[in-house]
């Protein structure tokens, strides 16, 4: 459940044939937001919508302005951290021996990102 219950989908029932372009993003990618919107606008298919889920300390001023002017753009910012790991790194970290017990077998601890961070998959799920 998103913090403070701020997520509210704009539509209860999508238009027939509506294409939703769902984009997870973060503060370090704000520089690409004008390009994202330009590419969205240039697509000839209608009806369409752009759903952007952004995480980080600061919202995208560009997408905030665009969402006010273009009703096809749904922009949601959540002030949480990104999960700063990928699957390979998590697996490697999980496989590292953490301690050696009496039975001469290694024990491992599962890697868990900080509780206030969101993975790319979670942002995709929220956008969809």
Can you put this structure into words, describing what you see?
This protein has 128 residues and is of the alpha/beta class. It contains 4 helices and 7 strands, in the order βαβαββαβββα. A 3-stranded parallel beta sheet has the order 1-2-3. The longest helix has 10 residues, at 33-42.
Task: Please give a quick description of this structure.
By secondary structure, the protein is α/β, with parallel strands linked by helices. It is about 30% helix and about 25% strand. The protein contains 4 helices and 7 strands.
Q: What descriptors fit this protein?
A:
single chain; 128 residues; alpha/beta; three-stranded parallel beta sheet; two-stranded parallel sheet; 4 helices; 7 strands; 23% strand
Average pLDDT number: 77
* Distance, first to last CA: 14 Å
What coarse outline follows from CA principal-axis ratios?
A: globular
Task: Report on the biggest sheet.
Answer: 3 strands, parallel
Proportion in helices? 25-40%
What's the gyration radius in Å?
19 Å
Number of helices: 4
Strand order of the largest sheet: 1-2-3
SSE pattern, N- to C-terminal: EHEHEEHEEEH
Output the structural class.
alpha/beta
Beta fraction of the residues?
15-25%
What are the segments in which pLDDT stays under 50 over at least 5 consecutive residues? none
What is the tally of beta strands? 7
